[in-house]
TrEMBL record:
PANTHER family: RRNA METHYLTRANSFERASE 3, RRNA METHYLTRANSFERASE 3, MITOCHONDRIAL. It comes from the Bacteria. Keywords: Methyltransferase, Transferase. This is RNA methyltransferase. Belongs to the class IV-like SAM-binding methyltransferase superfamily. RNA methyltransferase TrmH family. Pfam families: MRM3-like_sub_bind, SpoU_methylase. GO terms for molecular function: RNA binding; RNA methyltransferase activity. One of its GO terms (biological process) is RNA processing. InterPro entries: Alpha/beta_knot_MTases (IPR029028), MRM3-like_sub_bind (IPR053888), Ribosomal_eL30-like_sf (IPR029064), rRNA_Methyltransferase (IPR051259), SpoU_MeTrfase (IPR001537), SpoU_subst-bd (IPR013123), tRNA_m1G_MTases_N (IPR029026). The lineage of its organism: Bacteria, Bacillati, Actinomycetota, Actinomycetes, Micrococcales. Residues 31-104 form the RNA 2-O ribose methyltransferase substrate binding domain. Signal peptide: none annotated. GO terms for cellular component: cytoplasm.
Length: 280
């Protein structure tokens, strides 16, 4: 454990720079801000954690983070509140610097490796650009018991601070594969034994109706009890006709009241929990 007291130190500048994508790419590191995210990172991905920074008050308040860090031999530093604020205004007394995942042989190979684990429930985000939405869907997928999240080409950087914060630690609970073109992802998911369901308001199938026949769906009707990959589109324009055409079926979430639609994260949560319930 070391103490850091200068807001102008090179270390402070380096940590602060990780809020930018170019610095993350250059250094191969990213930020995790806040006690929830840091707790889960240290507990579930300690091999990726380079350093933990916390104030003296946070050290005493979040003893489980310190204990897990010590058990994993993760280096941690006690700083003043001013130093932590200089590193990140969203630290809430605790932050960590982690190594970015090894890209290995690229997105396609990463997806193939994830599918080798025979996932039964997958969330696919196509051209999702909003950090808060992406993080919220990763969190919802984790809560619903999904086995994998895939973000297609042109989606948001999942290691940006807002995405990481929005996952509330779920980023460290399940595999997240990025950078795969949607058509390639759908093809790989099909080969992996998953039906692909596009979530869209123009869908021919009503989600409630599918729940009613789960486990005994008639021919031509998707069975929610089967291994499934849900495809969710961009926040503004959803899925294009061509993108919907890649899926085995298009499913709409019923709107009972006067709302025009559900936002992305809410719709994804509803769909993922419907499959999770059917697969129990």
């Amino acid at each position: 454990m070391t103490e850091i007291s200068s807001t102008r130190s090179d270390r402070v500048k380096m940590v602060r720079s990780l809020s930018g994508r170019s610095a993350r790419s250059r250094t191969g590191r990213f930020l995790v801000e806040g006690p929830q995210g840091v707790r889960e990172a240290v507990r579930y991905s300690p091999q990726s954690v380079r350093d933990v920074y916390l104030t003296a008050e946070s050290r005493d308040r979040y003893r489980e983070i310190v204990a897990d860090a010590e058990a994993a031999r993760v280096y941690f530093h006690v700083t003043t509140p001013e130093v932590l604020e200089a590193m990140s205004p969203d630290a809430q007394g605790v932050l960590a610097v982690l190594d970015l995942p090894d890209p290995g042989d690229g997105p396609a190979a990463a997806l193939e490796l994830a599918l080798a684990q025979s996932p039964r429930l997958v969330a696919v985000l196509s051209n999702v650009r909003d950090p808060g939405n992406a993080g919220a869907v990763i969190r919802a997928a984790d809560a619903a018991g999904a086995d994998l999240v895939v973000l297609t080409t042109n989606s948001v950087d999942i290691h940006s601070p807002k995405v990481v914060r929005s996952t509330a630690g779920s980023l460290f609970h399940l595999p997240v594969v990025t950078g795969v073109p949607l058509d390639e992802a759908v093809a790989a998911l099909g080969l992996g034994g998953l039906q692909t369901l596009a979530a869209d308001g123009v869908g021919a199938h009503d989600l409630d109706d599918l729940l009613d026949v789960a486990g005994d769906a008639p021919e031509g009707v998707p069975d929610l009890r089967a291994p499934s990959a849900w495809i969710f589109g961009n926040e503004a324009w959803g899925l294009t006709e061509a993108e919907r055409g890649l899926a085995d079926a298009v499913v709409r979430v019923p709107i009972r009241g006067r709302a025009e639609s559900l936002n992305l994260a809410t719709a994804a949560t509803v769909c993922l929990y419907a499959s999770s319930r059917a697969q129990r």
